[in-house]
Amino acid sequence: MRSLNKIKIINTNMVEKEKFGLVHEIPSQAFIKALAEKLKEMPEFKMPEWAAFVKTGSAKDRVPDSDDWWYVRAASIVRTIYVQGVVGVSRLRTKYGSRKNRGMRPEKFYKSSGKIIRTIMQQATKTGLVEHIKEKKTGRRLTKKGVAYLESLAKSMK
Q: DSSP characters for 140-151?
């Protein structure tokens, strides 16, 4: 009986590995960095004027140090949508949230800014990489063009 269970586990793992695309084979940091460079070239992805003065969440003390943080966050969001399927703003706010240092009191988790995520998703929708859906699970998912774009980038990095 134990050997049958092991075979089943091995088979389910093989099925899961076959299901994943090329993007999963590349380390996430390298892929996000390359995708951020590609997004900079697109005219639809622009960092708004107000983004230079805002924090990424209420738990943060300062604005981001990097000049291209907007494009890195956009690339991370697009990759997350590729990996998770249908994703909404609330789930992404939780993903990018962090613990707030409250002095002597214990740290507490705070969600990140929703305006930044919403604006990036709207920009991705304008480019045609992401589409808004209202089905059983509402949120945004990649279009066929978006999947093809990410997988072509992954092929070029391989």
A: EEE-HHHHHHHH
Domains of the chain (ranges; CATH) run 34-157 (1.10.10.10)
From CA 141, how far away is CA 6, in angstroms rounded? 34
Q: What is the DSSP letter of 126?
A: H
Helix H or strand E segment including 122: helix 114-127
Residue recorded with tokens 């994703």: 87
Tell if the pTM clears 0.70, that is, is over it.
yes
| DSSP reduced 3-state for 154 | helix
Where does residue 48 fall: left (phi above 0), alpha (psi -120 to 50 degrees), or beta otherwise? beta
- For 36-58, the DSSP string reads HHHHHHSSS----GGGGS--SBT
| pLDDT tens digits, 19-69 | 456 888 888 899 999 999 999 999 888 899 998 888 888 888 888 888 889
Q: What is the largest CA-CA distance in the chain?
A: 63
- pLDDT on residue 20: 55
Amino acid identity for residue 102 in this structure? R
Assign residue 128 a region: left if phi > 0, alpha if psi is -120 to 50, beta otherwise? Answer: left
